[in-house]
Write a structure and sequence with these properties.
alpha+beta; Alpha-Beta Plaits; 2 domains; five-stranded mixed β-barrel; 2 helices; 9 strands; about 35% strand; globular; DUF4265 domain-containing protein; DUF4265
Amino acid sequence: MDKIMLRLTVVDDYPPVASEGVWAERQPDGLYRIANLPFYSQDACYEDDVEVQVEADGLKWFRRVGRSSGNSTLRLVFFDAGRARTPEVLARINALGCSWEGMSKAFLAVNVPASVSLDSVLEYLQECFEQDWLDYESGLLRQ
């Protein structure tokens, strides 16, 4: 596995970093398949095959998506009032056909495969949001 770096646009101190790294596996055609969920990027999703540019420092930087996986990325933030409901939300996300990775107990990235209805996932998250214990935002949406 190789680490691929993604540049981020910071606006009003968000995201809290100017770049993030994701793991990727080199494909026979020279592209790199992203092997984990980006937490902040709006340029690529899990399982996308991407082109990279190797810089003078040896780091591999994302250039563009060569082949889209069709996946979408969402981010979840659990407020204090919703932390006890995290297992319930993750079980529902899994039941809808999505996967997730956690940066912390309060901040998670969700992969919505191309085969899963993005609308059904967003409807569920909106219900949670309206109860004022969770917030969500989109990374890269493709549906």
